[in-house]
Amino acid sequence: MYSISTGYVKWSDASSCDYKTMALDGSSFFKLPAVLNWFTGNIGYHHIHHLSPLIPNYNLKKCNDENPLFGQVKPVTFWSAFESLILRLWDEKRGMLISFREMSLAGSY
Fold first, then answer.
1. Which of 70, 21, 102, 76 is nearest to 12 (CA)?
2. What range defines the domain where residue 51 resides?
């Protein structure tokens, strides 16, 4: 589960990368209902897994709740995830994912 919506993706060249930024901006916090967190082994806290893969899945929620660093990560909700299904192209001018329809409407590509 990686960044899936506009404003969530950060693509850059290797010279401007740092581990923490890429771990937090390059993956998603998929905010699921508690029962789905349980069934999926807390997969929604994928941003923490990318920062530190040694944290066991049963401690990911606690880690998220106790560290202010994770408060800056904008969550993807269960319903907003469906909106991102049409985003397929990276628009370098705007720095965001767009749909094929948006590309055709822009006309300058």
1. 21
2. 14-106
Is the pTM above the cut of 0.85?
A: no
Q: How many domains does the chain have?
A: 1
| Per-residue pLDDT tens digits of the chain, which is 109 residues long | 444 544 445 555 666 677 777 777 777 889 999 999 999 999 899 889 888 889 999 999 999 999 998 888 888 888 888 878 888 888 888 877 888 888 888 775 5
11 conformational bin, left if phi > 0, alpha if psi -120 to 50, beta if neither? beta
**Half-sphere exposure (Cβ direction) of 6: Cα atoms closer than 13 Å:** 13
3-state DSSP assignment of residue 100:
helix
Tokens in use for 35?
């029962």
